[in-house]
Amino acid sequence: MKEEQNKKDAEKHIINQAASEEYKYGFVTDIETNVIPKGLNEDVVRQISALKNEPEWLLDMRLKAYAHWLTLKQPTWGHIDMPEIDFQDISYYAAPRKQAAEGNGEIDPELKRTFDKLGIPLEEQMRLSGMAVDAVMDSVSVHTTYREKLAELGVIFCSISEAVKDYPDLIKKYLGKVVPYTDNFYAALNTAVFSDGSFVYIPKGVRCPMELSTYFRINAAQTGQFERTLIVADDDSYVSYLEGCTAPMRDENQLHAAIVEIIVEDRAEVKYSTVQNWYPGDKDGKGGIYNLVTKRGLCRGDHSKLSWTQVETGSAITWKYPSCILKGDHSVGEFYSVALTRNYQQADTGTKMIHLGRNSSSTIVSKGISAGHSQNSYRGLVKIAPQATGCRNYTQCDSLLLSDTSGAHTFPVIEVDNDSSVVEHEATTSKINEDQIFYCNQRGISTEDAVGLIVNGYAKEVMAKLPMEFAVEAQKLLSVSLEGSIG
Amino acid sequence: MLQIKDLHASIEGKEILKGVNLTVNPGEVHAIMGPNGSGKSTLSNVLTGHPAYTVTGGEVTFGGKDLLALSPEDRAHEGLFLSFQYPVEIPGVSMVNFMRAAINEKRKYFGQDPLSASDFLKLMREKRAIVELDNKLASRAVNEGFSGGEKKRNEIFQMAMLEPKLSILDETDSGLDIDALRIVASGVNTLKSEDNATIVITHYQRLLDYIKPDFVHVLYKGRIVMSAGPELALELEEKGYDWIKAQIDNE
Asked: Domain B2-250 is in which class?
């Protein structure tokens, strides 16, 4: 009797602890912000473009995107229960005031403190971290580190706003070429109102000597974040790029609708890693970020390679499918994903591998983990075009359930239009098992640590693809996010 | 070291243990035998705190502490070890990480600092040799793809790592060929000392040829119905359990 009671008490304790587990990044920075009034119309689009002193062609693109967006409806095909968003109730531009006034000079100490608190070093003296960072708060890039050092190699790493001014030819050549504004509802919206983001260009033959990363932070209330990332890897180049995201805890839902475009030329390689930890809402599902993102890469060159790795633990709703268009012969696309949902989080995520080039190959490893009352879906497309002979795809799609009240779903689509290609698909669904936990308990490992160990073991294949420093962070994040998720 | 008094326990409302009494002192080896369904595995699960079982009466002290009041992990820290009859697989979790977590949790419990990576690996190497577990197995995921014999050797390896005061070997001989049995038994014998004790749960005399018990108990219908010296095991091997069953059932 006593024993059972003890166990129940312990379980209750763990659950309470998790429920009250503070989202570590939920603070708000008290900083003066320029916010344009709520609402979306053509004038707002013009105003954003004017605030950024954009050239005519870009305003043109925004206006076309806006006009197109008006003809579209919010998509409903995802396995997601999302209220219709009132797009007139959102502010589309928010900029920390001081930064806006002082441009690229000194960083506002309050901003610096914010990013320090998030563990993002904006001071280049912190060379130990060995990482170049572009920090984006709300709608603008506040600081990019290591720019000069990278410039010596010809590597361009700056905010997309600056790139529009400083490298107009490159931006004009590549922006919107992989994800055109006609692509989908949120892509049209983003193209109309995007504010900032990062631009990366790696010239021919250059191996970027450090990890490049962008850190996205939503701070202002009732605003959306619409950033845009563009990465171009020229022939024979290599870059590893990391993306991290957090937001304050707020009762309202906030919208994050980004676009990431990547172009990979002959024999170039891009590794894109994401640790997504947007505020997921509270234990009752109140608040949290709607993360509705279009990410796509074009492996244009022969023997080019693009690898997506994502660890998703945040957001109230996640809707994203980082994809590869494998146009070059012998090009390679990879997608490694761990998506953890708990409480009332919903994730509909996966990838598309479009094989257009001969002998192109792709690998998909997706690991879903569902706890609480969450819903976790994998949605994927593997398409092999008639001319793309000799292609290969391997897909492994696993789901792990931590509770009886959560759901795991898979929606794979495979279209193969020639005889010489080989496609493999494996899928498993399992439940975390009481005997595994007891085995750990008997060896002296607490239930909480056991769940962390088992889930990290389950996700190992994906974690191993992350850059070392990030992997350690991601492992901790998984364990922390899991606390008390069992039951 | 271990005193079990009138222990009653049930699973899903069905009473399995109906008043078990047993005392184990340091340096002793006890064998618990008995027909299928007599409650042998239940006893080891209840002692180690498996959540599926409910204790409905009696008490257990271990090293002077109320064992039943401790969480399963604290029972482990206090020196109770179970070699599982069916060790589970934990995919993706390497034996190294698993053992390091176990060892360091125990050290934390006793207020010690975690073992350094090099000391830990040295310890692994040393203990591996006791059960002739090769390096490849030790660097694989916990029990994943291990053969029956490898799993049991791996259990004894973990026992060697954790240096428990009381080890319960739950049908460690099941599914072992004669060579594996010899390795496992010699591992257990190597680890035996004046300060620790072992409870061997088995159906067969065979294992007791290698691990010599000081006492042999027969568990039947949830109670220990007979206790004697090692000669009892030989008698059971020869005559089976029917004569004991008849004796008890007629009471």
From this structure: alpha beta
